[in-house]
Amino acid sequence: MKEDKLVIGGHEFSSRFILGSGKYNLDLIKAAVENAGAEIITLAVRRANTQGGENILDYIPKGVTLLPNTSGARNAEEAVRIARLAREVGCGDFIKIEVIHDSKYLLPDNYETIRATEMLAKEGFIVMPYMYPDLNAARDLVNAGAASIMPLAAPIGSNKGLATKEFIRILVEEIDLPIIVDAGIGRPSQACEVMEMGVDAVMANTAIATAGDIPAMAEAFGKAVEAGRSAYLAGLGRVIDKASASSPLTGFLNS
Amino acid sequence: MPKEMNESILNEEILKDMKKERINHMEYMEGMEVLEDSTVMDQVISAMKEYDYERYTEADVRRALDKEDRGPEDFAALLSPAADPFLEEMAEKSMLETRKHFGNSVYLFTPLYISNYCENYCIYCGFNCHNKIRRAKLDAEGIEKEMAAIAKSGLEEILILTGESRHMSDVKYIGEACKIARKYFKMVGLEVYPMNSDEYAYLHDCGADYITVFQETYNSDKYETLHLSGHKRIFPYRVNAQERALKGGMRGVAFAALLGLDDFRKDAFATGMHAYLLQRKYPHAEISFSCPRLRPIVNNDKINPMDVHERQLLQVMTAYRLFMPFAGLTISTRERAEFRDHVIGLAATKISAGVSTGIGSHSEEEEKGDDQFEIADTRNVDEVVAAIKNRGLQPVMNDYVFV
Question: What pTM did the predictor assign?
């Protein structure tokens, strides 16, 4: 059987769990890598941008891919500047675009995100835009050169689960790039549920960061993501959603 | 003497000066920018006037606490006396919200006073122009020396303060201080006199991105009796400072009433409404609160915040958090160390350390200029960092990039 890899911008990953950057916590990074098998860790450039003391960059284990994000950007131009800064400080070519100019709900601005994606893809970045799950915007992101699409499940940090499930399902159906669900996943069961739907990877942070036992919750997420993926590959979702009878329903017809 | 005045502020000289004729505090002075289209101040003031906190019942508080998203009416209930028996539950919910939005991060900063010259006569403030204190102003070299000394402590965020004198600390001078600060710090905030939006834009270009303006009190009648002369006397110009700062391109604005000057429940309600309405109008604006209480000053060690005890202060802080869970909340050295250590992670998200409210004391043994007020927590950065860790929280020096 062919190995099941997640491919983003030509890079292959075995793990489909990505650690988000929301809550800054060094124990969390360790748990995500060791207990959840994360191979990609998101990092807010604004927080890594530190002079002394505990530098978060020092805590990223070797072999883990850094996914710097542009949090703090309020428009496309600011996102581009932060992305360039990330490259300058040695964070590589991956960039997760976050353009937010709403301090209450922290909802991304799809229009500015599309603009930033276009500019950064032209500069050779592997662009992973965080977006509100809108099919038209997702198509624009594909055309703008995105390497994956990262729709939100619910507002950042809200732990509200799969508020946008139906719209993510449409993206899974219609968009050929990897779909990575980001933000709002509160429980391992929800991570499993979106993976069963055919989402390519899941990003979580707050749900693990605020758990009573961080390593144990990281492990639970890792397993949930794997279980969901296996279920998707096994075709379980289709059995439930659509009738697929064991013998043809039209077999009684005379040919 | 005006009704319900905090008598601890007063002395004979002030009482005499209060009898003198004063200019109209509602009329803009020449050169002050007027935001013709803004209705924010009127909305805040009318909401505050209508706020009758005695009419709220325990049932109103219960309803507010049980909600997931809270509006102005819930905020009003949480600030009312009826909420007092619920303080423990407010604290529990406040902690959950704080953790949800900020994780276990606690941000650190320190204020740097670069000048204590002032042209205002605010009768409760140590810097007021009639208070006989040692005045000083740091030059560029002095500012650099102070900043270098502060940066050595590991801090990456600084709040630059001046007394309110456009003459002694003009916008250009403040701008130069911002430029020096950018060399030593990642994040630069300002707590200086209110100015016009083009001046805020200039200071933004110099490297500042956050503006703090304490309104002191939102009761304009009381305000008028506390600010006897100087440009600060002009009430509407001060209220609209945050909006002008946002128009000037600042990323964030901070709000505060100085608790103990007037009816603290009304002032806290107005402060919250001010922040709430501006955030609705400028959704990108980063909002934060401070909760200062009156403190003793040089030449008057008896000043106190009247009926705002720690219990009331905590009620105000948790009410802010439950009303605007995403807003920053700074805890000042006006409060004692133990109080500060317990409110971080519970409601507060930012704490100052290594604080001096005088001039020149970070790099010199001897202060050049006297303090604005007496602080209650003199711990240095290492001590505050240790206290944060001790509470299972994480000290964060910076989470910001200037773009």
Answer: 0.92
